[in-house]
Every structure is written in C-alpha cells, then in structure tokens.
UniProtKB/TrEMBL annotation:
Its EC number is 3.2.2.31. It comes from Segatella oris C735. Residues 40-189 form the HhH-GPD domain. GO terms for molecular function: 4 iron, 4 sulfur cluster binding; 8-oxo-7,8-dihydroguanine DNA N-glycosylase activity; adenine/guanine mispair binding; metal ion binding; oxidized purine DNA binding; purine-specific mismatch base pair DNA N-glycosylase activity. GO terms for biological process: base-excision repair; mismatch repair. Binds 1 [4Fe-4S] cluster. Pfam families: EndIII_4Fe-2S, HhH-GPD, NUDIX_4. This is Adenine DNA glycosylase. It catalyses: Hydrolyzes free adenine bases from 7,8-dihydro-8-oxoguanine:adenine mismatched double-stranded DNA, leaving an apurinic site.
Length: 336
C-alpha cells in the first residue's frame, strides 16, 4: 500500500483546491463554530444543516450564550433535525466548556465533551487546532475501501482499526485539515455511495475497485441492526382553544420533546369519540419505523389526563420543541 501514499494524498489535495466546497465554518478557526457545525452535521446533510448552523450562530454567537440558554430553547431551535440527543448533548457540552474556561485543544480533552466521539474530536482538533489526526467518517471508509480494494467490513473491530491506521498513514504533515476536508468532499461529491463519477475521477487509473469492477461492492458493511416497527395512536385535543401536551421522559426516543396524548393516556370512552385524521403515517428513524394514527378530539368538558400533562393555548405550541411526527399531526389538525 505504501507505493501510492504520495500519489493518493497529493491527488486528493490537488482535487480539493479546485473542487472543495465553500462552507462558512471552514472560513474560521473558531472552535465553537466548528464544533457546532460538526454536531449539527452528524446524520444530517449539509444542505439542511447549513440553515440550522446559521440560526444557532445568530442566536448564540459564542459558547457562553449557548450554555446560558434553557434546554427547551435549544430543543426548539433543533426542531426538525431529528436525533434529539444531539441537541441535549450540545447544550451540556457548552456548559462543560464554560466550566472549563476555554475550549479544550487536545484530542483527549475534546473527546471528554458530551456527544463527541472519535471522528468528531478528530475533525474539530484538525480544523480548529491543526492536530495531526485523520477524522475517519463514512467518506473515508468508502474512498479508502475502493481505492485500495479493501473488503474488510467497516463496522467490525478489525475494519475500524484497519481504516483508521490507513487514513492516518496517508495524513500529510501539517495539512491535516485540508486532507480531512478533501476526503470528506471527495466522498460526498465524487466517490459517492451510488453512481460515483469514476469516468472523471482523478484517482481512476490507480483505483483498485475501478480496475477490478468492484466499485459498487465496496465498502463492505455487515448488517447487524434489525429495524423494528412500532404503532402509535396520537390524539390532538382541542378544548376551549387549548390543547394538552407533555414532555417525554428519560430514555424515550423523543426525550426532552413535547407530544400530545397517546391512547393509554385517555379513557376508552373518550378515544371512541375521536375523529380519525390520518392512518398509518410512516415515520422512519434509524432503528425503528413508526406507523402513527392521527386523531382529533373535541370534548365538551376538559379531559382528565396524567399529572405530567399541561394545557396550553393552541397557538403557543410553536414555543415548545416537538418531534417531526408532531409537526405532521399539527398540519392535519389545522385543517379540521
């Protein structure tokens, strides 16, 4: 593998100088701005994450501002991005940084922040502080697996170690940020998961997968997670201009967010009077598919609900952080 180290790295860096994406967090070395972008872009496409990053930076331009915010404010600002544990961890990490007195500038220090793993720490460390470390994400796995023809599964202990070592081996001295961003952009726009642009790829002549017609087969990933389906019945209550919501507890898929009652929060007599708005609304999460039935309840008297529910004016629900599925329920309820 060593014979292609210089060619692989120099070609990628040359490609990046011409084709690299102009992203606002790349025009700064402010670790707060960079950290914020990395957390937002976990499981999120850049085109969607950009708007969120801009809104966060406008509302909380420094880490002290974010740390002083209420969790509900952060959750509401995060609304629509999904994976809400990221928002809770973001807020807690901001408080960690403020308590520390500065943004940690070592790999170990960055990894101690809530919600920061190996990849995110390496990305922040290289972009903000010039740390000599490769930030191995899905793009790295794909580009390296194809270029070197590696079929070791990327989600095994052996694969993780192999690709981390290979990425680090090709890391150019003093140019970690450009190298990491080059592979990231190359994988996102050139060596894409589906229909990669091999005909115009600058690495095509020396790419093993291209030579062996294995581009579509690499990288290899073992299927380990079984997706489960969960059925929910959600009831939007409209009573005297008000509706009822409660905050989801610890360990819940929507922890810290607000939702309407489900069937087990209501009496069967009350449920029987509900109007069905929409059936089997599909909502896909990482390891779960939710099929939700949306109902509208317009009772004559205020229903009795569990003690953790609160009654709010209908128009005030926009002040609370709610999951995407709730947004869809609201859109149906407004038309009824």
């Amino acid at each position: 593998m060593k014979q292609n180290i210089s060619l692989f790295t120099s070609t990628l860096l040359a490609w990046y100088r011409t084709n690299g994406r102009n992203l606002p967090w790349r025009n700064t070395q402010d670790p707060y701005a960079i950290w914020l972008s990395e957390i937002i872009l976990q499981q999120t496409r850049i085109v969607q994450g950009m708007d969120y990053w801009l809104r966060f930076m406008e509302k909380w331009p420094c880490v002290e501002d974010l740390a002083a915010a209420k969790e509900d404010e952060v959750m509401r600002m995060w609304q629509g991005l999904g994976y809400y544990s990221r928002a809770r961890n973001l807020h807690k990490a901001a408080q960690q940084i403020v308590a520390l007195g500065h943004f940690p500038n070592t790999l170990d220090g960055i990894k101690r922040l809530k919600g920061v793993g190996d990849y995110t720490a390496a990305a922040i460390g290289s972009f903000a502080f010039g740390l000599q470390v490769a930030s191995v994400d899905g793009n790295f796995y794909r580009v390296l697996a194809r270029y070197f023809g590696i079929d070791t599964p990327i989600n095994t202990t052996e694969g993780i170690k192999l690709f981390a070592a290979l990425a680090q081996e090709h890391l150019p001295q003093g140019a970690a940020a450009d190298y990491n961003q080059a592979v990231m952009d190359f994988g996102a726009t050139q060596c894409t998961p589906k229909s990669p642009q091999c005909e115009v790829c600058p690495l095509a002549e020396t790419c093993v997968a291209r030579r062996e017609a294995r581009v579509e087969q690499l990288p290899v990933k073992l299927k380990t997670v079984k997706v489960k389906t969960r059925h929910l019945a959600l009831y939007y209550i409209r009573w005297n201009g008000m509706t009822a919501i409660h905050k989801r507890g610890s360990g819940d898929i929507w922890q810290g967010l607000w939702t309407v009652p489900e069937a087990d929060h209501l009496t069967s007599d009350l449920c029987s009077t509900a109007i069905l708005l929409q059936k089997d609304v599909k909502h896909v999460l990482t390891h779960r598919i939710i099929l939700a039935d949306f109902y509208l309840l317009t009772p004559q008297q205020q229903p009795t609900l569990p003690s953790d529910f609160i009654w709010i004016k209908e128009e005030e629900i926009e002040n609370y952080g709610i999951p995407r599925l709730m947004e869809r329920l609201l859109s149906f309820s407004k038309g009824s």
